[in-house]
Amino acid sequence: MRRTGAEVVWEMLSREDVEVVFGIPGGAIMHTYHPRQEYGVHHVLMRHEQAAAHAADGYARISGKVGVAMATSGPGATNLVTGIATAMIDSVPMVCITGQVPTPLIGSDAFQETDITGVTLPITKHNYLVTDVAELADVIHEAFYVARTGRPGPVLIDLPKDVQQAETDFVPPTDGITLPGYRPREEGDPELVQRAAEMVNKAERPVILAGHGVLMAGAMDVLRRFVEKIQTPVSLTLLGKGGFPESHPLALGMMGMHGEAYANRAIQEADLLLAFGMRFDDRVTGTLETYAPSARKVHIDLDPAELNKIVPVDVAIEGDLCHVLSQMLPLVDSRKRTSWLKQIEGWRGETAVRDVLRRPENGRLLAPQVIHSIYEQTGGGAVLVTDVGQHQMWAAQYYPLDAPCSLVTSGGLGTMGFGLPAAIGAQVARPEREVWAIVGDGGFQMTLHELATAVQEQLPIRIAVCNNGCLGMVRQWQEFFYEERYESTQLLNPDFVKLAEAYGVPGWRVTSPDQLEGAVAEARAQTGPVLIEFRVAQDGEEGNVYPMVPSGAALHEMIRRPVEAGTTA
Amino acid sequence: MDRTLVAWVEDKPGVLNRVASLFRRRAFNIESLTVGHTEQPGVSRMTIVVDGERTDTEKVVQNLYKLVNVIRVKDVTEHPSVMRDLALIKVRASNGKRSEVMQIVDTFRARVVDLGLETLTIEVTGTEDKIDGLCEILQPFGVEEMVRTGRVAMVRGKNGKDVREGDR
């Protein structure tokens, strides 16, 4: 069957079960766009390629499938870069297809030529420059395989215009992928699993650190059985949220820089840390010299390069979490750890009185109230997509999750501008679910043009702009660590309600706590995109995220919010 | 102490770039890196020498495996191996000095591969120490040009088969 390269692209995308592509056409990729409709793959026309990559990322995180972004050569391709880097550091399966100048012009500095395989080399799991149309089908098949297997990640395929135009005899790739060096390992070494189980059985004060890997491996059920058998508390990383139900009595909530104080304390006092599918990011460890000083450590991860990378551990097991936990489950003793759990409960109670939501009402609208109200009204069942900054941390703190595929957030890269486009991807992936984009006024303005995409696609995303009139997290650091000199963090913002209206999005403003409940309810009743601007407190104990482990401090040396008179436990 | 890694990689465009980029990105120190064909079509072989003091070899191995085109990696430092470097040295040697230089060449079991009016070009194969030694002795004559390939390594005898398994 004779096919052009462009037709091979869509034929292969259909075969890889791709239902939607996020992108923007342009000179070097329009030939590929041309036959799209004949293959029934939906295309979401974004307003900026960075947003296309974030949307593909959000789609992948919620659907569990590979997200696909498409862009033209040169600036189209370079605009993808932030989105690719975001997906890389958070291990999100993604395939990006970029147009490239015709092969005879490569290297000649032709119009809109960029060496995008060179540019993306360190921020992709793998990439390809296809120079022969006969190889295209195999390359696409391999790209999807590499993106979704092992430790997932973004893969880029650069497609010169003449390769898109050239004809070939299309042969569907067989399943045999020939990558002799690529062998993701599933089973854990039985000897190491045995040693880890013995350490669990001996431990008096164990804590489990569960990360994104739990969700990626689909290890939620086996983790829960494991946890309940050994009666060990579980703390989650930001990206691990949803991997273990936060309403469970053994759930400790999030760890790290803005984690729960009692979770951090438990980690510091533990005699055994069981790190599952997490990578000891500096945002979760505090300073390494004093990190969990009396704990022996077991680390299970699919990526051997993560083992002993940051924290030297006693037992390092390479393998798929589902497999390794299933291997370990019969080897661990069922036992109670009453005194340890009781001790942690004491710390938990001490934390509660510092909660800003338990303070007496004073008329100021606070971002945690906004998130709490959304949580209450959605019963915790929404898909929450955040941007990056203070609101992101509050979303993690005040929107506890019991189910996977419920939170989309840029963890490793901390990409401002991620929220709205990622919410577009999430809503496309799950049209039936209620998607909330929680964004700050700073990050929102980095990609707010995607309001147009949401309208064009009629996606009923509820956008909550937590507007505190500044780059809040930077401002908080300036208040704490930079002599309260608020250098370049105060924002003169547009009228977000009018702005939404200009895009055809209904919008309204909430300025006090008494309007909160009604506004959230009204947003939920909409059938298309909607925006609410929440004017939230900027400064003081109510405007900052607590607790906070200062950069370079030990995990237990947290800045705590003072207890105010009248606060109830 | 430096450590010697052997990596078998798919012979595809950009693989050397991927390896070099990895070393740069992870701040690994390379002493030398050589690449060439092997007995297997489609497979290239790299010999990578890293500074074992400043770079954790195990991390290098694990990160190399993250590259999709890397087939096997082996740290051969502890295995009895043949390790060789090759150098071409162009040394100033006019009539008066020529026989003296030739004698040195013989002593080091090197070879003269080109003879000019003013210069001799010497080819020498051996360990880095041996080549360093020759260079030092030739220095007073005036070394016009010098090029070295960097180390290539092969494990001796039967061990070769184990090496093909790779570290992992």
Largest sheet of chain A: 6 strands, parallel
CATH superfamily membership of the largest domain in chain A, which one? Thiamin diphosphate (ThDP)-binding fold, Pyr/PP domains
Strand content of chain A: 15-25%
Q: Name the average pLDDT of chain B.
A: 91
Residue runs with pLDDT of under 50 for 5 or more positions of chain B: none
**Overall 3D shape of chain A:** globular
What is the correct CATH architecture of the largest domain in chain A? 3-Layer(aba) Sandwich
Quaternary structure = heterodimer
Q: Please state the second-level CATH architecture of the largest domain in chain B.
A: 2-Layer Sandwich
- Return the structural class of chain A: alpha/beta
Biggest interface in this structure? Answer: A-B, 18 and 23 residues
Folded structure, characterized:
- The complex is a heterodimer of chains A (569) and B (168).
- Chain A is an alpha/beta fold and 569 residues long.
- Chain A folds into three domains: 2-169, Thiamin diphosphate (ThDP)-binding fold, Pyr/PP domains (Rossmann fold, 3-Layer(aba) Sandwich); 190-350, TPP-binding domain (Rossmann fold, 3-Layer(aba) Sandwich), CATH 3.40.50; 360-542, Thiamin diphosphate (ThDP)-binding fold, Pyr/PP domains (Rossmann fold, 3-Layer(aba) Sandwich), CATH 3.40.50.
- Chain A has a six-stranded parallel β-sheet, sandwiched between helices.
- In chain A, α3 (49-63) packs parallel to α5 (81-89), α16 crosses α17 and α16 packs across α23.
- Chain A starts with a strand and ends in a 34-residue tail after the last strand.
- By secondary structure, chain B is α+β, with helices and mostly antiparallel strands.
- Chain B has two domains: 2-78, Alpha-Beta Plaits; 82-152, Alpha-Beta Plaits.
- Chain B contains five helices and nine strands.
- In chain B, the strands form two sheets. In chain B, strands 5, 6, 7, 8 and 9 form a five-stranded antiparallel β-sheet that branches. Chain B has a four-stranded antiparallel β-sheet with strand order 2-3-1-4, sandwiched between helices.
- The model of chain B has no long low-confidence stretch (mean pLDDT 91).
- At the A-B interface, loops of A face β1, α1, α2 and β4 of B.
